[in-house]
Design a protein that fits this description.
The protein has 849 residues and is an alpha+beta fold. It is built from 20 helices and 25 strands. The strands form 9 sheets. It has a 6-stranded mixed sheet with strand order 13-25-22-23-17-18. A hairpin with a 2-residue loop joins β15 and β16. The longest helix is centred in the C-terminal third of the chain and has 39 residues. The termini are far apart. The N terminus is likely disordered.
Length: 849
């Protein structure tokens, strides 16, 4: 903030506060209190702290009106102060008015201090009240008018129509240029101590937050690592503005293989001074490996057909032969490049059906024409790609970078808003005279003669001020396919769920109301013998279930996953976990899971105690180790396969050790802590007593048997999520960008509602059939949705994916089983607690002898 308003200099150092004038001050001026008695003889002399206002015109007046500093003020003597006092403004809080007082070296001479400017606080804790004055109090003094702006000495501290309100309180900066002096820093410390003692720490923090949020610093709120970067032309560089544009490369992946590979695994052009940005935990788990590349551009400097490097292959050299064979294998499996400029994916946009344009955040290495003459993948874009059993390499890239100029903005240079490319294939004949024209670069299927591959690029810049930097990802998101299906499927699911929710609620409420009214009206024993329905099992409905240990462990882990999922999706909806912040989603989920061990231990321990369990040590250990151990074992086996295949998705040994340290060092102790508090509390009290002898369950019909009810219970929740599940699987296995977290959060809420309603409805039907074994059935009814998830994943593998190879197949189903287990625990916990609440509620309003 270089200036506040026209004609007003930067703020000067603040060293004191003056407070609103009161009539009480005038009374003191006329009848000052008597001086304190002298200390007794021999007592140590101590100079009392005094706050004195010295001025050429008010020396005599100030001498008679000094008063002690309160106990909480600084003990060191205040420096001599001189300056100018502001009049209170109606637009400021009436309790305090801020005043600028110069210290040792003011930037400008201070105006004279008027005798009437001495003011005293209204807070009685600041000054002990003297004896009541005998003179009548004068009438209250109305606040003076707002004075005109002071030209040089003091900046205005009241709100002004031309100055944003948050900027009015930024008076904590030194008026003199250069580094702050020790006296200035001491003055600021005294000011903050005095303000915090009177205003309270809460108001002081609010004041400092307002100061930090002032728009005068020409800075906005950006997520860490996502702040805009400005670029300038060569020779016009200034601070925070650079001319070099670096292109970074990420891993290469394929829809036909689950195994991603690093850029260096292929024999492409490499940067002589390779740099690798620091990667977060989520990027490492997803196999992202970002590195610098030899593609470097100068802002707003067009280049045509620039040579990057030359690669030669000799069939007699085994090493070069293997490199070319691996490159051809990547082309055959349609591996895709992923390039990054200014933290933004470089997209390849091409026309699709109905004249629409689709932008892909990756582009292929090349394309392949089979020995039978079938044209595969990207070979369809050029009719010259037609030779049988031939690989075509995209060795030339046309890059177009669009920028938003800063002509009418308050930031320097320009900001990049889009980066597009078009892959091309050219067979360069003369390495020294490149034209980027001619036939495509062919690599025959049979490697019998030497091959020379020349990689080139062209770059051009375009100005487009209609695209803002904050919305530069929109052109990628708008071109995503099936976006309209998202809206239709979500609205369709929402309407169906709301309709079914109304039906379920109406049936349950009306039926339950009649049941409770009928049961409570039964008085005679003869009528009681004719009871039927869910009241008959009131003595057995809360009988502890079999395998209560395992059920309590599942409930604890499910609670942990539920809280983790809710917080992660909520943060994603707010934009903190957007695709621009790579790896943030997985990092947030893992960290939350580690930190949420306490709720898992607490819920598991309390439910196990409610089930009258006694082996509490086993319960705590299983809660902390069972489900995470299964996930880690599966994950470790998948990682071994990736290690053997040399994939970039293989987690380094150090990261694996770090994950184990987080598990055993943070999650397990927190689980023990939660279990300690859970076992200390009393078990959940049930509304009815449990009989000693269990009741015999009558013969059940087919639909009231456990298995048919469980199978039917998972259909409704899965029907609400399966379309959203299609987009999630596309994001994971087809490497498409997932960004609709708002819809995903809505589907998450719909899933909670449907799991709860389906479980409650089926639980009511089974209780009416006098089957009181509802504990495990409530958990399995909603968790059976995960079985439908597994079936859908198998269908997706065979119908949508083109994955080949045993390793990729094992990896697909290995990771799918982790998803199924997490979904099993999550949905089962939701259904169980919904049913537990329902059963407790209906039996609590029932009159039982």
């Amino acid at each position: 903030m270089e200036r506040i308003s026209e004609g007003i200099p930067p703020p000067l150092p603040i060293s004191a506060i003056t407070l609103p004038r009161t009539p009480y001050l005038d009374v003191l001026a006329r009848d000052p209190p008597p001086p304190p008695p002298p200390p007794p003889h021999g007592a140590p002399r101590r100079a009392p702290g005094r706050l004195e206002l010295a001025g050429s015109q008010a020396r005599e007046h100030a001498r008679s009106l000094t008063y002690p500093i309160p106990r909480h003020a600084p003990s060191h003597p205040a420096p001599p102060l001189r300056g100018h006092t502001f009049h209170p403004s109606p637009s400021l809080p009436p309790l305090y008015t801020y005043t600028h007082l110069h210290t040792h070296a003011p930037c400008a001479p201070a105006p004279p201090l008027s005798p009437g400017s001495l003011q005293q606080p209204r807070d009685p804790s600041f000054l002990p009240p003297p004896a009541p004055p005998k003179l009548p109090l004068p009438p209250p003094i109305s606040p003076p008018r707002r004075p005109p702006p002071i030209s040089r000495a003091v900046p205005a501290l009241w709100p002004s129509p031309s100055v944003p309100p948050a900027r009015d309180y930024l008076a904590l900066r030194s008026c003199c240029s250069g580094a702050p002096t020790p006296s200035t820093l001491a003055t600021h410390g005294s000011f903050l101590r005095l303000v915090s003692s009177e205003l309270g720490m809460g108001r002081l923090l609010l004041l400092l937050l307002l100061a930090g949020a002032a728009p005068g610093g020409s800075r906005a709120f950006y997520l860490p690592g996502l702040a805009p970067v400005s670029f300038c032309e060569v020779g016009k560089e200034i601070s925070n503005c650079k001319h070099l544009i670096e292109l970074f490369v990420n891993r290469l992946d394929s829809v036909e293989s689950v195994l991603p590979y690093e850029y260096d695994a292929f024999d492409f052009c490499k940067d002589s001074e390779e740099k690798r940005p620091s990667e977060n935990l989520g990027q490492v788990l997803f196999g992202e490996r970002i590195a610098s590349s030899p593609y470097k551009f100068t802002f707003n400097h067009e280049e045509k057909c620039v040579k990057v490097c030359v690669k030669s292959y000799d069939p007699k050299n085994e090493s070069e032969k293997k490199k070319l064979a691996f490159l051809k294998k990547g082309i055959q499996l349609n591996y895709q490049h992923h390039w990054i400029i200014d933290n933004m994916p470089v997209t390849w946009c091409y026309d699709v059906e109905d004249g629409q344009k689709y932008c892909n955040p990756g582009f292929p290495i090349g394309c392949f024409v089979t020995p039978s003459g079938r044209v595969k993948d990207a070979c369809n874009i050029n009719s010259e790609f037609n030779k049988k059993n031939t690989f075509y390499l995209f060795n030339h890239i046309d890059i177009t970078i669009t920028y938003h100029s800063a002509k009418d903005e308050n930031w320097p240079g320009a900001r990049l808003v889009t980066a597009r490319l078009e892959p091309k294939s050219y067979k360069h004949t003369d390495e020294d005279h490149l034209t980027c024209e001619g036939p495509p670069m062919e690599i025959p299927g049979e490697f019998t003669q030497k091959q020379k591959l020349i990689y080139t690029y062209s770059v051009k810049f375009e100005e487009n001020n209609s695209i803002k930097w904050a919305s530069r990802w929109d052109y990628i998101l708008e071109s995503m396919p099936h976006t309209n299906i998202q809206w239709f499927s979500i609205m369709n699911s929402l309407v169906i769920v709301l309709f079914l929710s109304g039906m379920v609620a109406m049936i349950l409420l009306r039926t339950l109301h009649k049941d409770i009214a009928r049961y409570n009206q039964i008085d005679s024993a003869e009528d009681a013998q004719e009871e039927f329905g869910w009241k008959l099992v009131h003595g057995d409905v809360f009988r502890p279930p079999k395998k209560g240990m395992l059920l309590s462990v599942f409930l604890g882990q499910g609670t942990q996953i539920f809280i983790m999922t809710f917080i992660t999706l909520f943060l994603a909806c707010l934009g903190f976990l957007s695709p621009a912040n790579r790896g943030a989603l997985m990092t947030c989920a893992v960290v939350l899971w580690v930190l949420l061990g306490t709720p898992a231990g607490y819920v598991s321990a309390k439910m196990y105690k409610t089930f009258r369990g006694e082996r509490w040590k086993t319960n705590v250990l299983l809660t902390a180790l069972l489900c995470p151990g299964i996930v880690f074992a599966d994950f470790f086996i998948m990682n071994l396969i990736l290690w053997v295949k040399g994939s970039s998705a293989a987690i380094p040994f150090g990261t694996l050790v770090a994950i184990l340290a987080m598990w055993f060092g943070i999650s397990v102790p927190l689980t023990f802590l939660g279990a300690y508090f859970g076992f200390k509390e009393k078990p959940i009290e049930h509304p009815v007593r449990t009989n000693q002898i269990p009741r015999q369950i009558p013969a059940q019909s087919f639909f009231t048997k456990p298995l048919p009810g469980i199978i039917m219970g998972g259909i409704l929740p899965f029907g609400c999520i399966f379309i959203q599940l299609f987009f999630i699987l596309n994001s994971i296995w087809s490497h498409q960008m997932y960004y609709m977290f708002g819809f995903l959060f809505l589907v998450f809420i719909i899933l909670l509602i449907t799991c709860s309603e389906a479980t409650v409805l089926l639980c009511y039907f089974h209780l009416c059939a006098e089957d009181y074994h509802w504990w495990w059935r409530a958990f399995l009814t909603s968790s059976f949705t995960s079985i439908y998830l597994l079936i859908y994943a198998v269908h997706y593998f065979f119908s949508k994916l083109q994955i080949t190879g045993a390793a990729s197949t094992i990896l697909y189903f290995g990771y799918t089983m982790i998803m199924v287990l997490i979904f099993f625990l999550f949905t089962g916990t939701i259904g169980f607690f919904a049913c537990f609440w329902f059963v407790s509620k209906i039996y609590s309003v029932l009159k039982v002898d």
